[in-house]
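Issue: copy button drops trailing tokens. Both records pasted manually instead:
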Amino acid sequence: MLARALVVERELIEAAGVALENRIADDLPEVLADPVALGRCIENLVSNALKYAPQGRWMGIRAEVAAAEVRITVADRGPGISSAEQAQLFEPFYRGAAALEAQIPGSGLGLNLVRQTIEAMGGHISVYSRPGEGSAFTLHLKVARE
């Protein structure tokens, strides 16, 4: 499912000249998630990373198992997000000051929809970011039990 989302975005990643560091564990268990909805969430995070990673920069995608969850992280080395703005990132129509100043297109709905979708599947999303160092968005999904 993660590989499928990356295939959709690979053309955009290559066209943007962004170096992709792909660290996806081979032995990922099944998660409690709708594959189509999860794919759209991943695509949204990749699309955002491309918007904020300037031409010729880096983006990382990591998927790993930790405790009883799978964590999928999309990271960039863009401008980063201040701690004051991080609390508002997932609110509908919120656009950060840097995005507005740089006139980066967007509606401010993507991260809100990702949060709602992931929470509807029993997971959650987290962000780690520092101004000038980039951002990392992580989807936390419950492992499916047999």
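Record 2 (pasted manually too):
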Amino acid sequence: MNEYNKCVVNKIINGKQCTIIWHVDDLKISHVDPKVVNNIIKRLEVKFGQESPLVTSQGKIIKYLGMCIDYTEKESKNIDV
């Protein structure tokens, strides 16, 4: 758990950092390997998706909590609110 923000967790998976941030029931999961993210989503689906399927969004441009986060440029991130 991140010592500065209790809604952020980090874990090293396959030698790289995986970060999960959340607000209420909205999560943002990041890792350099999309397979790691997909595995986490599958595990969450098994545990929490029984009553209602999880809604996911993946790619270089994502919407999260009213923001549009653009990862299309390698060294820069654009966030539009």
